[in-house]
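Next comes a concrete protein, fold included:
___
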Amino acid sequence: MLRRLLSLGAATALGAAALTGAAAPAQAAACSSTNGVTVVVQSSQGTQVRCASGDPSSAWSALQSAGFSLTAVQRFPDALCRIDGYPASDPCVNMPPASAYWSFWHAPNGGSWTYSQVGIKGWNPKPGSSVGFRFGSGSAPSTRPATVSAPAPTTAAPKPTAAPKPTPRTTTKAPSAPRPTSQAPGGRTTAAAPTAPRSAAAPGPSAAPKRAAAKPSASASASVSASASATASPSASESSDVVAAAPEGTDGGSGGSSAGATDGSSLGRLLGGGALLAGLASAVAVVGLRRRQAAASV
């Protein structure tokens, strides 16, 4: 009975091992996004999957960025001899044999392996792609290339801005002529009344300003008085003529009275004529004074 149980257990273990060997190879997923290159290294010692961050310039740089140490062939520096010291039996002087060398493969994001026709230092992998290396006779890595997604944007997309509204066109008015102002009492400013322009025609006669009649000057009064006095006082010869012209009467008394009457009437006429002359002189003086004042005001 025990032997049957042991036989059954061994058969189960063999079946599980067969199922494990038939399972699909593991997928390389070291890089979580397209910000890097996935590197797969497979040998008899195992399979390692790492991520070379950023955008390496070549497959050689991707291996070094992923943390692998590399040894080139001495006579062919562009050829790869060892990865992490494997195989230690190769002195790395000449090219390794076709049955024991590191074959180089590359694949796009989510694609399949392709044997590289370009040297390891001449291939520039794109971010998100995979590079694979397998030691042996030139078989592809058993691990599938990585399938990664683009990284989510870290910043929100900018919102579209509305088109700027057209600004209204402003029209400028011609500046108006400033109105003349005059300062009014109390600090107020009032607009001065516009003055009519003078016409080319000759101005009409302007009325002379009314002024109070000026009194004649002392010199005018003195001249008028002198004229009146000279006219009023008859000379001695005129008196003697009047007296001689009087008719002589028989009566000395009557003759004297006639002469006195004649002298009185002559004296009255002389005084009246002197007053008339004085009035005319005053009028002439006043008219002359007004004319001088009118000429001075113009």
Q: What stands out?
A: Residues 5-25, 182-194, 199-261 have pLDDT under 50 and may be disordered. The first strand starts at residue 36 and ends at 43.
